[in-house]
């Protein structure tokens, strides 16, 4: 699918919702195009649910998320939407050879490395003989470590393993793939609208343009950035109508570009979100994240680093938390992070290193984010829904 | 394709749908919507496709995994007719 073939689809969507969804009635006029529609986010939808939500007749599916944003949110889907979203995910798994009648092993979001839990999953692998195993990347890594230690072979019919909801560390990816003996497929989605992108067997991370329309904007100007430039990922669901997700700001940072050969829309995500650096009364410039990409690249090259996390402990204080062997030198990373933060946030910062044996997952989401802040966002900013 | 084979496809498709949604084939009509009227859900959707592949001997392509094709009994019959050799 090309960008030009998507234009009529989003314009038709704009026409539909501007005539059917009260919140969008002001954009009914023919003079308005899709790109004139306002951006949305969780706060906006929560505030205007009465004008946005259209409850379907028949069965509905709902789930709740606070995710990494901390904003409680109810996701609702009709049976038809649920079916379309499931079919989209399956379509992508099919590219990996998954049969219609398949077996999947799902790892818990709250995986611990207790032997009992590992033994449970090893038994499940043996009993179920899954076609694929799905879980947070950190859970897949833990299971791979256990399998390696115990010399446990993966199921013979395994086609791939699928990450869900966490950033992938390249050096760990290679280890996980070698233990399971199959490739890892990365997945990017939101609870609100499910699939956004799925890794193809050839390694490209492809947006599924049958279910979403993706834009990348400069969060400062709200203008689109050029293809290949980092910015905030904004998605429009082409499936969801119960609650329409139109130009929905994800807070995720990434870039998109069109693959010349296949025409597919490729995506690359940064392992952090827009909201993860909190500054007093100002936003982090989007260009900052481009330079952060280099820092993460350098960090990923350190094969002996098992886990890491940057923690903003105060407006100007950051700790690089690292789980690595004691002999691993980390001073250069401390210096590099100090330079990066100082130069691009334009403030004097303190950076320290904290060595830990293991970084625990977030108790709400079960994820191990690469960047967390302990700074409370100012109430005024939170009320305005400012993403900083 | 002869009228007989078209009728035969129609009958078989209705029986496949009835088997998947656990309803009596005699009570299923062309206008029935698979999700709203017959209770097809996301898991049964894949079962339906597997059953259609098995019953009619065709292999679905990646682009076929779109529930829009299977919106109603009638659209499902059309989908199958388009893929069964004349």
UniProtKB/TrEMBL annotation, chain A:
It comes from Paenibacillus arenosi. Gene3D superfamilies: N-terminal domain of ligase-like. It comes from the Bacteria. GO terms for molecular function: ligase activity. InterPro entries: ANL_N_sf, CapK_Type1_Caps_Biosynth. PANTHER family: CAPSULAR POLYSACCHARIDE BIOSYNTHESIS PROTEIN. This is Phenylacetate--CoA ligase family protein. SUPFAM superfamilies: Acetyl-CoA synthetase-like. Keywords: Ligase. The lineage of its organism: Bacteria, Bacillati, Bacillota, Bacilli, Bacillales.
UniProtKB/TrEMBL annotation, chain B:
Keywords: Phosphopantetheine, Phosphoprotein. Residues 7-84 form the Carrier domain. It comes from the Bacteria. Gene3D superfamilies: ACP-like (1.10.1200.10). Pfam families: PP-binding. This is Acyl carrier protein. Coiled coil: none annotated. Signal peptide: none annotated. It comes from Paenibacillus arenosi.
């Amino acid at each position: 699918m090309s960008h030009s073939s998507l234009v009529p689809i989003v314009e038709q969507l704009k026409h539909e919702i501007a005539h059917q969804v009260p919140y969008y009635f002001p954009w009914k006029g023919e003079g308005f195009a899709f790109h004139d529609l306002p951006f949305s986010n969780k706060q906006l939808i929560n505030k205007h649910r009465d004008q946005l939500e259209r409850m379907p007749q028949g069965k509905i599916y709902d789930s709740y998320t606070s995710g990494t944003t901390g904003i409680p949110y109810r996701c609702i889907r009709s049976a038809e939407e649920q079916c379309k979203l499931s079919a989209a995910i399956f379509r992508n798994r099919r590219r990996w050879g998954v049969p219609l009648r398949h077996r999947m092993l799902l790892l818990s979001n709250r995986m611990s490395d207790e032997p009992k839990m590992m033994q449970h999953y090893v038994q499940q692998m043996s009993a179920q003989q899954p076609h694929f195993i799905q879980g947070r990347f950190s859970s897949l890594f833990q299971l791979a470590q256990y399998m390696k230690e115990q010399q446990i072979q993966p199921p013979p019919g395994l086609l791939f393993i699928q990450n869900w909801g966490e950033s992938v560390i390249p050096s760990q990816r290679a280890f996980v793939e070698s233990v399971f003996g199959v490739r890892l497929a990365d997945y990017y989605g939101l609870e609100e609208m499910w699939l956004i992108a799925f890794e193809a067997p050839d390694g490209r991370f492809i947006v599924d343009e049958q279910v979403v329309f993706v834009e990348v904007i400069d969060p400062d100007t709200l203008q689109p950035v050029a293809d290949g430039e980092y910015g905030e990922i904004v998605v429009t669901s082409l499936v969801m109508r119960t609650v329409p997700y139109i130009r929905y700001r994800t807070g995720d940072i990434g870039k998109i570009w069109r693959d010349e050969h296949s025409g597919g829309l490729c995506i690359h995500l940064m392992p952090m979100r827009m909201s993860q650096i909190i500054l007093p009364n100002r936003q982090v410039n989007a260009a900052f994240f481009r330079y952060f990409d280099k820092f993460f690249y350098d960090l990923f090259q350190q094969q002996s680093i098992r886990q890491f996390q940057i923690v903003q402990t105060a407006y100007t204080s950051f700790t690089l938390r690292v789980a690595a062997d004691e002999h691993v030198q980390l001073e250069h990373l401390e210096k590099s992070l100090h330079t990066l933060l100082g130069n691009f946030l334009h403030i004097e910062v303190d950076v320290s290193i904290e060595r830990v044996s293991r970084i625990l997952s977030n108790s709400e989401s079960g994820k191990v984010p690469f960047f967390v802040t302990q700074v409370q966002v100012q109430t005024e900013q939170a009320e305005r829904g400012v993403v900083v | 394709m002869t009228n007989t084979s078209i009728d035969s496809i129609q009958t078989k498709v209705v029986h496949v749908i009835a088997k998947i949604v656990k309803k009596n084939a005699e009570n299923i009509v062309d206008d029935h919507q698979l999700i709203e009227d017959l209770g097809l859900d996301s898991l049964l959707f894949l079962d339906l496709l597997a059953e259609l592949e098995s019953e009619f001997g065709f292999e679905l392509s990646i682009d076929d995994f779109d529930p829009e094709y299977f919106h109603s009994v009638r659209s499902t019959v059309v989908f199958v007719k388009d893929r069964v050799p004349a």
